[in-house]
Amino acid sequence: MKTRAAVLGATGAPAPYETSKPLVVEELVLDPPGPGEVLVRIKAAGLCHSDLSVINGDRPRPLPMALGHEAAGIVEEVGSGVDDLARGDHVVCVFVPSCGHCGPCAEGRPALCEPGAAVNGAGTLLSGARRLHRPDGTPVQHHLGVSGFADYATVSRRSLVRIDPELPLTEAALFGCAVLTGVGAVVNTARLQAGASVAVVGLGGVGLCSLLGAIAAGAREVVAVDLADDKLAFARQLGATATFDSKDPDCAEQVRSATGGGVEYAFELAGAVKALELAYKITRRGGTTVTAGLPPPTATMPLPAVNLVAEERTLKGSYIGTAVPSRDIPRFIQLYRRGRLPVDRLMSGTLTLDEINQGFDRLHAGTAIRQVVTL
């Protein structure tokens, strides 16, 4: 069948993207689902900094690639061996497929699936197949097994979670990345206890989801840290108890002073080494620093190693919120529907597929939190 998709042909295009047009909406040939695969009619796909990091070259990927990894849609067709989904089911896409039998999957850590990581790096589905082609037969890579900036996508069954069809798909899309990563970092990676003090460094879509997750988990104090005044103001509207400007050279000392020596849990979601250094500095003795940001692969951070021992500090990474998506996405949706996770407030607006480069201009400029392409 044919599908329209936003394809990245080369990295490093200069902003504004509306002018340089790194993403070109093309008509591609999409193969039907093979064994263990599903054809999904994409209805909504969120714009994420992880997409932007592929566009600007910070996260190298094989090209050409059809981008988009945070998406939701409706099942159109299932391949052989798929007996737990049917046409018409509503699904959220997950950007790491889990094989179910490697070491991490067997330990209940599907976010670290080894075959899933390998195929994501190669630009294929979990089966190793590529189902996208240009009309001349040139293969097009899959982005994290999803390629959601498209009318249709063929994906592995293990990249999908079925959801309640009453949830609007424009909202459901956020649960596949922003909510899963941000809230998961709080409740799964950190295992935040009620009454703890928290700081969130980096108030993009994922960071604000962490802030909402900390509030929902019962944090007594939630400090928000960012470069942008408007995002700090928005964090206060969402329930942050204090906000600090990370541009201020005394920011770390100000946070430590305001929180009695630092917070028990600091979450870094900016994807920048300076942000992680700041998060580590504002973590108190005996506290935990969690990073879910994705800096360029070459980025390194100097670490005062003695603090890990003398202050019993913990530094943890969090990928997809240490989530079990089939468990966590339905749980987080229930919390949202009960008003405990108002993630719909993070939506900056919707746009069409043809407006996608303008959307990434807004994301790059920091003037949008979560935009959703509707299809």
Describe this protein's structure.
29% of the residues lie in helices and 26% in strands. It is built from 13 helices and 18 strands. It has helices at 17-20, 49-55, 103-106, 114-122, 169-172, 178-189, 205-216, 229-238, 251-258, 273-281, 305-310, 325-337, 356-365; strands at 2-8, 23-30, 37-46, 65-66, 70-78, 90-93, 132-133, 139-142, 152-156, 160-162, 197-201, 221-226, 242-245, 263-268, 283-291, 314-317, 347-351, 370-374. Strands 3, 5, 6, 9, 10, 17 and 18 form a seven-stranded mixed β-sheet that branches. A six-stranded parallel β-sheet has the order 13-12-11-14-15-16, sandwiched between helices. The chain has a five-stranded mixed β-barrel with strand order 1-2-7-8-4. Strand 12 (221-226), helix 8 (229-238) and strand 13 form a beta-alpha-beta unit. It is globular, with a radius of gyration of 20 Å. 50% of the residues are buried.
